[in-house]
């Protein structure tokens, strides 16, 4: 069965973000650092944020993970840099709903991350796709100038 053009585009965008992730590496100056892992598959992300006056000025991520986890983190950085913390929290919720197969309304603000809607068909991959986004949420919600280490627990449903 031949893949549709949309399926090919979906795969190409994921492969591009996975092979050449945006905002990958280490920040020279960060206000928040978060490490999170997904024990069900072994994905690990270290996320560094530079938040100033409630705006995400810059961020970088590092770690090891599958192509979905890496691509999603890359897409996330593109979507949230320059946004306020509040705007980023809205995008995190919208992305979480999207990958669980729920209607989310206008997806333009998610950018390439909107292409990960197909993850809803593969429940085991939802945690891979949301790992970076959950780390960002923790980084925003935790106090500034902190380092946080968390893990997604097996009992988390669909997150």
UniProtKB/TrEMBL annotation:
Domain named NIF system FeS cluster assembly NifU N-terminal is located at 10-128
**What domain of life?**
Bacteria
Q: Which SUPFAM superfamilies match?
A: SufE/NifU
One of the entry's Gene Ontology molecular-function terms is: iron ion binding
Name this protein carries in UniProt: SUF system NifU family Fe-S cluster assembly protein
Q: Name one GO biological process term.
A: iron-sulfur cluster assembly
What protein family is recorded? Answer: Belongs to the NifU family.
Please give the organism.
Answer: Vagococcus humatus
């Amino acid at each position: 069965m031949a893949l549709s053009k949309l399926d090919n585009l979906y795969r190409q965008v994921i492969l591009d973000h996975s092979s050449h992730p945006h905002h990958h590496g280490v920040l020279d100056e960060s206000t928040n650092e978060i490490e999170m892992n997904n024990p069900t598959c072994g994905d690990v992300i270290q996320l560094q944020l530079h938040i100033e006056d409630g705006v995400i000025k810059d961020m970088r991520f590092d770690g090891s993970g599958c192509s979905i986890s890496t691509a999603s983190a890359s897409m996330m950085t593109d979507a949230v840099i320059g946004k306020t913390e509040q705007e980023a929290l809205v995008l995190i919720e919208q992305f979480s709903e999207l990958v669980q197969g729920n209607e989310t309304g206008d997806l333009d603000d998610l950018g390439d991350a909107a292409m990960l809607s197909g993850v809803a068909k593969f429940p085991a991959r939802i945690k891979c796709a949301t790992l970076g986004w959950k780390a960002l949420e923790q980084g925003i919600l935790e106090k500034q100038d902190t380092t946080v280490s968390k893990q997604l627990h097996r009992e988390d449903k669909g997150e």
